[in-house]
Design a protein that fits this description.
Elements lengths: L4 H8 L14 E12 L8 E12 L2 E4 L2 E8 L3 E10 L20 E12 L2 E10 L7 E8 L2 E3 L2 E12 L1 H8 L18 E14 L3 E11 L2 H4 L8 E12 L1
Antiparallel strand pairs: 1-2, 1-13, 2-3, 3-4, 4-5, 5-6, 6-7, 7-8, 8-10, 9-10, 10-11, 11-12, 12-13
Length: 247
């Protein structure tokens, strides 16, 4: 099963945090992480995978594995960036018996905007992405809120988030086409879905070059996804433990 873009973004965004050179200095990070997660599909269960992480940052541009962004507007407490990313969701027939006879669900390339707002009582995030690869032809909008807590040698960020997936996106990954329906797998049309996530992210710094990241999160599915014949869980969980070296 391919890892979700949420997991990969979480791994890769720590790659440029440890070092603090001048803004326009080229920064390069290399590392990896172990991710344990259960995506909620029937007969798939939890999986643990190692994911390498490579990141490049120069000024307002970041390339973080399958995720790229360019910050084109910035103030002391507000940033607005254009983003492009590979959505690595999906499955293949041999991932589980439940997918036998179904078309593979492929990754997509999504483009959009992301805003970050820093306030005295926490950080707010707003993100919108749209498929531009004609894969699922849908879009996703996410609102998030986190409270950064500074501790010795690192920081801890408890957060909550709500993500709205359009009908095209949700149905592509969790629906069953009429041509795919069987006696054990009924036709199912997924409506638009709003999933809720709660979690904690943590970054731990050791000198200027070493960083360890430990995250944990749980995402609760919308009822329209829970009712899919491909799903047998009410949500997904993810645990991440990673390391990066910043050159």
């Amino acid at each position: 099963m391919r890892q979700s873009i949420i997991a990969l973004a979480s791994i890769l965004t720590f790659s440029t945090v440890a070092a603090e050179p001048e803004q326009d200095e080229l920064k390069f990070g290399l590392g990896g992480a172990l991710i344990t997660q259960d995506e909620g599909y029937k007969d798939v269960g939890s999986e643990t995978q190692f994911v390498p992480a490579i990141a490049i940052e120069y000024g307002d541009f970041r390339l973080l594995g399958p995720y790229a962004s360019y910050t084109f507007f910035k103030t002391e407490r507000f940033e607005l960036a254009a983003t492009g990313m590979l959505r690595l969701d999906g499955y293949e027939q041999d991932d589980s018996d439940v997918f036998q006879g179904m078309d593979d669900r492929d990754m997509s390339f999504d483009f959009g905007l992301e805003a970050e707002i820093d306030t005295d009582f926490g950080e707010f995030g707003i993100k919108y992405t749209q498929d531009v690869s004609n894969t699922h032809d849908g879009y996703e909008a996410t609102l998030s809120y986190g409270i950064p807590l500074r501790v010795e040698k690192g920081r801890i960020v408890p957060y909550i988030a709500a993500s709205f997936s359009s009908e095209d996106l949700a149905n592509y990954y969790y629906g069953v086409k009429a041509s795919e329906a069987t006696a054990d797998r009924s036709f199912y049309q997924v409506d638009s879905a709003t999933n809720f996530e709660i979690g904690v992210q943590s970054d731990w710094f050791f000198g200027k070059n070493h960083m360890i990241k430990a995250d944990a999160s749980y995402t609760s599915f919308d009822s329209t996804i829970k009712d899919s014949p491909l799903v047998d869980k009410s949500g997904t969980f993810q645990i991440l433990l990673g390391y990066v070296y910043v050159f």
